[in-house]
Automatic annotation (TrEMBL):
One cellular component term from this protein's GO annotations in UniProt: cytoplasm
Protein name: Adenosylmethionine-8-amino-7-oxononanoate aminotransferase
Catalytic activity: (8S)-8-amino-7-oxononanoate + S-adenosyl-L-methionine = S-adenosyl-4-methylsulfanyl-2-oxobutanoate + (7R,8S)-7,8-diammoniononanoate
SUPFAM superfamilies tied to this protein: PLP-dependent transferases
Keywords, in A-Z order: Aminotransferase, Biotin biosynthesis, Cytoplasm, Pyridoxal phosphate, S-adenosyl-L-methionine, Transferase
Broad class of enzyme this protein falls into: transferase
Gene3D superfamilies named in the record: Aspartate Aminotransferase, domain 1, Type I PLP-dependent aspartate aminotransferase-like (Major domain)
Length: 439
């Protein structure tokens, strides 16, 4: 069937993320390989673009990687899925062993979930169960910072930013949480040093500590995206802020939940973002890059202390159990993805990060741009007003790049396997698109 007919069939039938049913026509993907997508535009033209998004940050090895393809075929030839209730299998156990070995701090237990949002739901439920198990059942709320994003399910939405998130669409349904100010934005220089305004840092720390103390009796945990706030604004912050959160959690008997779904597996320049601060969380959520973008899989990692408290509680179990928990196919691919990451992530992330830093620098000369920043394999152009998303997307495609801007940001989180020339293409395309549309 011709691709034009596919767009006609899609329109008004399929909801796309954060888009109306009668929104702009999407681009049709007809092929994907390496870091490139083959797209058909609404006018029927076909073009190849470099994917600056890594399919929303998960396809870190690109598309049709032979190692991941091989892992998928091998597992399909064995079995693709079995329930995890009362059963176990090598892909899941092997993956759990690797995750606790790679994670920052003394992680001891793993709970597999089907998506990042669900892993956050599980982490929040776990924190409530933990507090009840240690004799603090009144601790039913969470402390976080403004500007955060943790997913689109209900409990996850409740700890997203209360202004820029989706709270206003669901009044009276989302739980009320405690929100501290955003950590001050920080800059990571080319030599790996973090720089932030000292007075702003001091004010933030004082405010955070005071807010935590005032609400300590009701707070089960602190949940935060370590070092980089992702969908809330692509804002890096100083590792000292994460150290303060660890200190506050210890002082008041809260758990520290690190949402490493977007930041984990090398994206910020360390394998896990918590490593920038030498902080060990009590709970870690991982997802996105876990399977290299092949299948949806996430995991919640906890310490032995947390696991012992849950096991010693009246329920004894963590009260969650997805149908596709620890899907063998996803776990097998995740193991293959970690094989690749362990060998290559440090070199590739540093290389991609350097190329983004140099390639996006010309954007600082554009009148519409208020900031250009990079951290790890993340590059951001921030405008002084909201991005004209359809126009900038179309301009970037004409320049050989796939981007998905949001709010006032045009950004890149590309596959780690991008060549130097592909990263240069991404940077040229982003700068050209912003200049063409916004000046």
């Amino acid at each position: 069937m011709p691709e034009r007919a596919l767009l006609d069939r899609d329109q008004g039938l399929v909801w796309h993320p954060y888009a109306p049913l009668d929104g702009p026509a999407p681009y049709v993907v007809s092929a994907a390989s390496g870091a490139r997508l083959t797209l058909q535009c609404a006018d029927g033209t076909v073009t190849e673009v470099v994917d600056a998004m890594a399919s929303w940050w998960c396809a870190v090895h690109g598309y049709r990687h032979p190692v991941l393809d091989g892992a998928a075929h091998a597992q399909v030839d064995s079995f693709s899925h079995v329930m995890f209730g009362g059963l176990t299998h090598e892909p899941a156990v092997g993956l759990a062993e690797r995750l606790v070995r790679l994670a920052p701090g003394p992680m001891a237990h793993v709970f597999f979930a089907d998506s990042g949002s669900v892993s956050v739901e599980v982490a929040l439920k776990l924190a409530l169960q933990y507090q009840a198990a240690v004799g603090r059942p009144d601790r039913q709320s969470f402390l976080t910072v403004r500007g955060g994003y943790h997913g689109d399910t209900f409990a996850a939405m409740s700890v997203c930013d209360p202004v820029d998130g989706m709270h206003s669409a669901f009044p009276g349904v989302l739980a009320t949480q405690v929100f501290a100010p955003r950590p001050p934005i920080a800059v990571l220089d080319a030599d790996g040093r973090w720089e932030s305004d000292e007075s702003a840092m001091a004010r933030w720390e004082s405010s955070f500590r005071a807010l935590a103390a005032a609400h300590a009796g009701e707070l089960a945990a602190i949940i935060v995206e370590p070092i980089l706030q992702g969908a809330g604004g692509m804002r890096p912050y100083h590792p000292r802020c994460l150290q303060v959160m660890r200190e506050v959690a210890d002082e008041h008997g809260m758990l520290l939940i690190a949402d490493e779904i977007a930041t984990g597996f090398g994206r910020t320049g360390t394998l896990f973002a918590c490593e920038w601060a030498n902080v060990s969380p009590d709970v870690i959520c991982v997802g996105k890059a876990l399977t290299g973008g092949y299948l949806s899989l996430a995991a919640v990692l906890t310490t032995a202390q947390v696991g012992a408290a849950i096991t010693g509680s009246p329920f004894r179990a963590l009260l969650h159990g997805p149908t596709f928990m620890a899907n063998p196919l996803a776990c097998a691919i995740a193991n293959a993805s970690l094989d690749l990451l362990e060998r290559t992530w440090s070199r590739d992330v540093a290389r991609v990060g350097d190329a983004l830093r140099h390639g996006l620098a010309p954007a600082t000369d554009l009148t519409s741009v208020v900031d250009v920043r990079t951290v790890g394999a993340v590059g951001v152009i921030q405008l002084g007003r909201p991005v004209d998303v359809p126009a900038v997307t179309a301009a970037a495609v004409r320049n050989g790049v796939w981007v998905r801007p949001f709010r006032d940001l045009v950004y890149a989180m590309p596959p780690y396997i991008c060549s130097d020339e592909e990263v240069a293409t991404i940077c040229r395309g982003m700068v050209a698109a912003v200049e063409e549309v916004h000046g």
